[in-house]
Amino acid sequence: GKILLIFLYFSSIVDTNPPGKRTYTAINNPLTWKDAQTYCRTYHTDLAMIDNAEENADVMSLMSTQYVWIGLYREPWRWSDNSSSSFTNWQSGQPNNYDSDYCAAESLGHVWADVNCDTKCFFWCYKDLKISCFKDDLWHHMSWPDLKN
């Protein structure tokens, strides 16, 4: 009896969501970059932040259209949450910093281009997976980055 109770207690401490994985949602409603950011922050976590080639492929598989907003803007190029971008996937000749091209969008070729932020594009939002922890008879929901800290 005691061993089963201990097992059940520890098995409820953290659920089985893969740590560090984000979930992405394609939004088929064209908005400006700023309006897309506001939407994502209201209903998800933020505009998509792409940290590596695997995430880039995952995100692009969700939607195929000419340009889709990601959470990158400049200058210098930073993610919507103001973190720096260590992974980039710019199209050849991009970013060209032409005129008012201060926001990044992903194109059909899985590459990024700088685009005028007032252009209305579809966009991706991401949501950090929540980790459920049982402590002191209360459930706590934390994002993976919060849990690591």
Automatic annotation (TrEMBL):
Name of the protein this chain belongs to: C-type lectin domain-containing protein
Span of domain C-type lectin: 19-126
InterPro entries with a match to the protein in the record: C-type_lectin-like, C-type_lectin-like/link_sf, CTDL_fold
Swiss-Prot/TrEMBL keywords: Signal
PROSITE patterns given in the database record: C_TYPE_LECTIN_2 (PS50041)
Signal peptide: 1-16
Species in which this protein is naturally found: Seriola dumerili
Pfam families according to UniProt: Lectin_C
